[in-house]
Amino acid sequence: MDRHAAAESVRLTGLPSWKRGHAMFGITRSLAAPWWTGEPAPLAERTLLCLPYAGGGPQTYRRWGELLGPSVEVLAMTPPGRGRRYGEEPCRDLPSLLHPLTDALPGLLHRPYVLFGHSLGATVAYELCLEIRRRGLPMPQGLVVSGRQAPDLPWRFRQVSELPADEFTEALRDLGGTPEAVLAQPELMSLLMPALRADFAIVESYRHRGEPPLDVPILALAGTEDDRASADHMAGWADRTTASFALHPVHGGHFFVDAQAAAVTELVSAFLSPPR
Asked: What positions does the domain Thioesterase TesA-like occupy (predicted)?
């Protein structure tokens, strides 16, 4: 779960439940409602489209525009069931997420772009590339996959999406990334749980279909203390492209994308602007 969203959830616990549910995920101005959130960047030379991890939303990327500078427009996906889309049914399988997400892309592809995804977001970003290729849309200049094992590897972890509420909460505690102040509030967790369960259902049901590799450069980022997606488990992303591939370590555990935003965006910036 997004740490910024969780902190906002705690702040809003004094609101009535229905108001809290619609307000708990703070968002910035929308450029491509309902899927994409971001700030206008009229001087931008390229766009970075960011896909969140399970339970996350645009908040992870809210400072990235500042960190990457005015030449990059940063747009982050708002999945159904989060933020201004809180009242919508969350997607529980990849096709139900991927197809409408791709439908919303053409209006954003007026300049060169790169896809970034962390954890579940990396899977979505990769599959989005494949769907873009199927539809004959302009391909991204690059794909950044962060904190996610290579797509052809089997899921090695416990299935949690259908666990009883107390066991599911404990599984989130074990994973990390969700503040204890949120996990300890059953009413708040009951509001968050449908979207969280749906995201984990996508993770657990995903199966790579063995399509031909992309002709898109891939940058893979692996947390040095992330046992869910170590460098060894991410090395296989090299087989998913016929273009260049690079694997870089980032200090931290699975949620290094939050804790090491400056380091991550520095690597992304170098990837966006390779040496000429």
From this structure: 49-272
Let me know if 119 is a catalytic residue: yes
Distance from C-alpha of 171 to C-alpha of 148, rounded to nearest angstrom: 18
What does the mean pLDDT of the chain come to?
86
Q: How far apart are CA 127 and CA 118, in angstroms?
A: 13
pLDDT of residue 33: 66
Torsion angles phi and psi, residue 258, rounded to 5: -85, -50
Tokens of residue 256, six digits: 């290094």
Which of 107, 128, 158 minimizes the C-alpha distance to 51? 128
Residue type, 152: D
Tell me the Ramachandran region of residue 81: left when phi exceeds 0, alpha when psi lies from -120 to 50, beta otherwise.
left
Please report, for residues 161, 211, 239, the alpha-carbon distance to residue 47 in angstroms, rounded to integers and kept in the order given.
Answer: 33, 26, 25
Task: Just give the CATH number of 36-153+208-272.
Answer: 3.40.50.1820
| pLDDT(11) > 80 | no
Q: What is the 3-state secondary structure (H, E, C) of 119-154?
A: CHHHHHHHHHHHHHHHHCCCCCCEEEEECCCCCCCC
**Would you list the domain boundaries of the chain?**
36-153+208-272
Report which of 123, 100, 114, 127 is spatially closest to residue 34, judged by C-alpha positions: 100
Which amino acid would we find at residue 136?
G
Q: Which of 119, 161, 244, 269 is catalytic?
A: 119
Number of Cβ within a 10 Å radius of residue 98:
17
